[in-house]
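At this stage, I wrote out one protein's amino acid sequence and its backbone structure tokens, and that material follows here:
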Amino acid sequence: MKVIAGGKEVSLVGNPPKIGQEMPHFKLTDAQGNRVKTRDFGGQLTLFSVIPDINTRVCSIQTKYFNQAMNQYATVRFVTVSTNTIAEQAAWCAAEGAENMEMMSDKEESFGYEMGLLIPQTGNLARSIYICDANKQIVYAQIVENQSDEPNYQAALAKLTELQAK
């Protein structure tokens, strides 16, 4: 799959999973430096907000948007994933007052490779949103074609509203 990053078409490392597939096995690092694996996301509806770099304008906007929206979805786990270090993520959260969103680092690129979202030329993840159900099945997927664009927040939140109503 290809996306546009920095005005150039670039290839992702693989083929991202599709709706109906199970989340692949990956490892992330949480804000406390703990290893978090795919199995740790079972049992709860989870929205993954995937961003290239927390220290850029659009990534900051995307993260703030979901940080504010999550108050309306008490039963949903919201996770932001980037290849930034946990120190960079913590500094951004402190500067922006973002206290609700779970930030997870993919500095080791496990998530990026397993999800097929890593852009090898930049070492960043492709801007995307994934929602998985309590069984870790993907129920929503959105990969933003032009990485400088914001995702379709309304579509993702509409899917969460639909899923919570079930």
